[in-house]
Amino acid sequence: MKRAEALALLGTGLLASGCARANSNAVAIGSKDFTEELILGEMYAQLFEKHGLPVARKFNLGGTQVAMEALLRGDIDMYPEYTGTALITILKLKPSGDARAIYTTVKNEYARRYGLVWLQPAPMNDTQALAMTQAASAKFGVRTLSQLAVAAPQLRLGAIPEFTTRADALPGLQRAYGGFRFKEIKLFDIGLKYKALESGNVDVVVAFGTDGQIAADHLVVLQDDKRFWPAYQVAPVVRRATLERHPEIAVYLDRLAPFLTDDAMRGLNEQVDGAKQEPADVASAFLKAHGLV
Q1: What residue ranges define each of the domains in the chain, with the CATH number in brackets?
Q2: CB atoms within 10 A of CB 168
Q3: What residues are paired with 207 via a beta bridge?
Q4: How far apart are alpha carbons 184 and 37 in whole angstroms?
Q5: 115: left (phi over 0), alpha (psi -120 to 50) or beta
């Protein structure tokens, strides 16, 4: 989840596109580059459009650093972010406390350091995880991260690029658990890692708590027995000036938040990743089902 490459990208094409909105009064909504963020971005956009607020979609920006820099520069007005990611990747703080304490820390520090506002978090927890097929888990006797740390030299890891560098990813696991020196690390686009696992190209993959494929493929999510990972609740992060212009944004998005549970988000992700529906259609059906549009 996600420095020099990201900032270089931002400083070229993204910055130019962000400054050239078709409607200067539109709220520019960003997202990172994976299914869940695309769905959430669409939900935000469709809620605003339902209430007559013009929107500029700036989706699929890349990783955390790109989205955050876009927000700080004013290329976008808001995007969905995760409390654990903000705590560790952006604020460089150590994970501690329960989900509410993490949210409070992130909310206060973003306001103090950046002048950014966190709206209400959803109950869902898109925590990082590592997963295996049931067959591989049984073969290598791995059900926990402590066991995986020891067994890693026999195993091939399927990861996304950020996982090899982020403090709350592989480097952090190596410090917290020891071991975690894999036989091979193969990097994949975020949408291809589960295919690599099911086809036998890797033995273990980076996963996230609300991934639809976990249930669909009956995967074993390895227990974080040392409680390394914090809570990763999602919430909209908004520029203060944007909220001052459009205070109704908070009302619309705070109404949405309680419906975004783990089970709901897994189902939405699977509709896109498994059933190949469009994120916009999946978002629309969900909002209608809950009487939000």
Answers
A1: 4-125+233-289 (3.40.190.10), 128-221 (3.40.190.120)
A2: 22
A3: 129
A4: 29
A5: left
- Mean pLDDT, range 253-273, rounded to an integer: 95
The C-alpha atoms of residue 11 and residue 6 are separated, in whole angstroms, by 9
Residue 241: pLDDT band with limits 50, 70, 90: very high
Q: What's the pLDDT band for 21 if we cut at 50, 70, 90?
A: very low
Burial label for 78, CB within 10 Å (0-12, 13-18, 19+), is buried
118's tokens: 């966190």
Residues 163 and 172: their CA atoms lie apart, in Å, by 10
**pTM for this structure?**
0.80
50-73: pLDDT as tens digits: 999 999 999 999 889 999 999 999
CA distance 49 to 249: 11
Mean pLDDT of the 198-203 span: 96
